[in-house]
Amino acid sequence: MDFNNNWPSLIITSGIMTTEELQKAYQAALADKRRWHNKGLEKLCRDPYFLSGASLGYPTGAMLWTWDTSQTGGFCEWANRVLSERFGLDVHVEADEGSEPERMWIRYGDQEEVCNWRTINRARWMGAFCIMSNRLLTSLGVLAFELETGGVDTVVAFARAEYLDELKLYLPVVE
Fold first, then answer.
1. Predicted TM-score (pTM) of this structure
2. Could you list the residue range(s) of the whole structural domain that residue 128 is in?
3. Total domain count for the chain?
4. Which long-range contacts (CB under 8 A, 24 or more apart) does 92-101 make?
5. Considering the domain boundaries, does residue 22 fall inside one?
6. Beta-ladder partners of 144
């Protein structure tokens, strides 16, 4: 498939947004002209805030994250749901209330992987989460990656690994 001519289809095929989410987010963006400045769908699909469902009020396959340990539970619930619903993985990310995630279990068929981290530099917490998640996810065809927002916020996304090189052509993926 030639995604150069149909960039939104790459967002759907890779697993970041569903067709329904993309349509709802675009309609919400059209209604909120002050925030999205009348961008077309092609340009909106390159915006990490748009991909994270900021216009929907709930995260898609990408999530906006500003470091705040009181929000860790919501992040863990999102990661569990996205990896299960979009990619068919049995995942559990665990965190104590008010702290960074502690463990991540992923089961797929007969495979089971556990990642344990407790001493992560909070300034680069999401990058560390992506690296450690990918140790488990890569062999299952899914990757976590961080998108550059240009601010203090971070957007983390999950996508099918086979589309990452193509996504990097359009998205500000943090290396």
1. 0.81
2. 7-170
3. 1
4. 97/72, 97/73, 98/69, 98/70, 98/72, 99/69, 99/72, 100/69, 100/72, 100/125, 101/72, 101/75, 101/76, 101/129
5. yes
6. 158
Those residues with Cβ within 8 angstroms of residue 64's Cβ, 6 or more apart along the chain or in another chain: 48, 49, 52, 54, 149, 153, 154, 155
pLDDT tens digits for range 44-60: 888 898 999 887 888 89
| Residue 2, domain member (yes or no) | no
Residue 175 falls inside a structural domain: no
Specify burial of residue 122 (Cβ count, 10 A radius: 0-12, 13-18, 19+).
Answer: exposed
- To 5 degrees, how large is the angle CA 135–CA 153–CA 35? 130
Q: Which long-range contacts (CB under 8 A, 24 or more apart) does 94-103 make?
A: 97/72, 97/73, 98/69, 98/70, 98/72, 99/69, 99/72, 100/69, 100/72, 100/125, 101/72, 101/75, 101/76, 101/129
Distance CA 77, CA 97 (A): 13
